[in-house]
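ok posting inputs for the 3-isopropylmalic acid job
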Amino acid sequence: GKTLKILVLAGDGIGPEVTQQAVHALRSVADLGGHHFEFKEMAIGGVAIKKEGSPLPSSTLEAALDSDAVLLGAVGGNEFNQLPPDRRPEAGLLGLRQALGGFANLRPSFAWPSLSSNSPLKPEVVEGSDILFVRELLGGLYFGEPRQWDRETNSAWNTMRYTRDEVVRVTRIAFELAGKRRKKVTSVDKANVLEVSQLWRATVTEVARDYPDVALDHQYVDACAMHLMNTPRNFDVVVTENLFGDILSDEAAVITGSLGMLPSATIGGAVNLYEPVHGSAPDIAGKGLANPLGAILTAAMLLRHSGGLESDAQAIEASVRQVLEQGYRTADLARSSSPGIQVVTTQEMGKQVNETL
Amino acid sequence: GKTLKILVLAGDGIGPEVTQQAVHALRSVADLGGHHFEFKEMAIGGVAIKKEGSPLPSSTLEAALDSDAVLLGAVGGNEFNQLPPDRRPEAGLLGLRQALGGFANLRPSFAWPSLSSNSPLKPEVVEGSDILFVRELLGGLYFGEPRQWDRETNSAWNTMRYTRDEVVRVTRIAFELAGKRRKKVTSVDKANVLEVSQLWRATVTEVARDYPDVALDHQYVDACAMHLMNTPRNFDVVVTENLFGDILSDEAAVITGSLGMLPSATIGGAVNLYEPVHGSAPDIAGKGLANPLGAILTAAMLLRHSGGLESDAQAIEASVRQVLEQGYRTADLARSSSPGIQVVTTQEMGKQVNETL
Ligand SMILES: CC(C)[C@H](C(=O)O)[C@@H](O)C(=O)O
Ligand SMILES: CC(C)[C@H](C(=O)O)[C@@H](O)C(=O)O
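and the output
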């Protein structure tokens, strides 16, 4: 059996309810496989602001750095919308990402066969799609200095900045992952306008030479936003800078049919960070409506990337597939009430996955 | 009749062939309506680099400033991909945009009924969609200083910058246009992370108070990229910064079924600029495959916004609708060969529109 210290940061909105189901899945895997997973829970985001006056209390940060993996729910809430970026719940998440040091945010966007009718895209367009976004997570506009809202001049600015080394390291991860998949990398930039994208493109092109068996394609971000919808099957691994990855991976949620299905793993740093792609969704929080499958699939990524437990990860993924095939759906997935579809709560969905495990 | 001096900048790739058809349509309108349109042609982009060593020769710029409206085709080509941003064909376009001073780029994304099966989105998702993007065109990362690729430190940066006044003026245009439509503005930003977006959101919120009959909604750019695909009918006018508008309006091309259908008008400056949204598409240039309807609909916007010729604009739009209903399609629109569909060349498509006029 394997031993893992997992820090659980459930956060705001639907964070706690979906994270609870992910923890259940991890506990089941531990029981079945004889692993020893030690869970600790701490505060982040809006919850931490209220309890401790900071979106990322130092106790949380210390516990995160002391763990083998961090499992996060979601942060953010409407009541904080008036605060400046550096005091919002999101600042806690961004500070955590930076402190943990993971620069490669892996976001798979997979067309689950039994959900193909859930997508706004035609079934024949999405069927068979299997995209892995590798989003650079520590650079670009999110962290670039200088940044300011200057109230005297009534102007504001942020900086999109990359160094060559930052591009090299995330590109290597993309190519290595592509080598184990369909051997194709699409790098996305805006090199016809931005200097920072020119550095990006030149660096990716250079790194690609070390991976002769993987094909490289460059796309402008505007064109890519369109191609992803027209021909999603043409993509294998997509590597891109922080904000482009934020936008494109959310857009690609429509391939899966719901943001609620999407997991993510951030690797490459001191401690890996695992978070579903969906946000805190305050409007449906606490109502049992949230889809826990994104969080549960995130737990599978934790097993894969922090535990080296590939077969356990696959067991969770197979359970999710089976539960979907049996017709279980949370509200976000149950647009049309077809025969054989059964709408379940967050908890019931988690329970189904556990029983299938 | 109306007199208009129109500068035609056909540019690169498919620019010349589609622009030719747009000019035909304008000539027909002039003949029918007793207008006097004077056309002048000059070079921009790659063609200008080759002929005159600059993507925006001063003669072109002078002629543009001396005209009543500029009709542009497209710029860019693969042979220029190695040049730095400030010497590429695109720099000519960006320099022209800046010199003409138009800050509001209007990009309608309209679900033509007879094209609903062309979209990768389900017909029931796109039917009835009618979105007007108002993209800020002179600010943000495109023009923000400082910007540099520093080869010594191997790093690069661009600046996303806005002043309050820049946001105010484009927001006013969005609200005024929404007042004549379905009275709804969606402002798109990333205010949970970026200071520049916080200024954006605060300013839009303030301007909105002057338009009490128009509803305002704020969305984060990542969420918007998803909502546009899930529920396109929920959008009326979308106002956003330069790069977000670039990405989202290209993405929204899938609502129409093809980028080749999309027109744009840039207003608010000394001289209005009209350009189809599609690029130079070098791979299909000169083959008669390009769709001229984006350029022809752009000509309609020229009549509307520079000529005050609303009924002439509508005549062109009605002709386009009729030609589509009759089953004429350029290659980009003719994915599936259904009965009644006739694939035509760029020239034939232009001719059909003209005859219908
Ligand atoms: C909550 C927000 C700061 C975050 C981001 O933009 O990175 C979210 O949208 C995401 O994609 O994880
Ligand atoms: C060609 C390029 C500079 C341009 C832009 O990014 O503005 C194009 O993509 C557009 O949308 O008009």
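notes: The first helix of chain A runs from residue 15 to 33. The mean pLDDT of chain A is 96.
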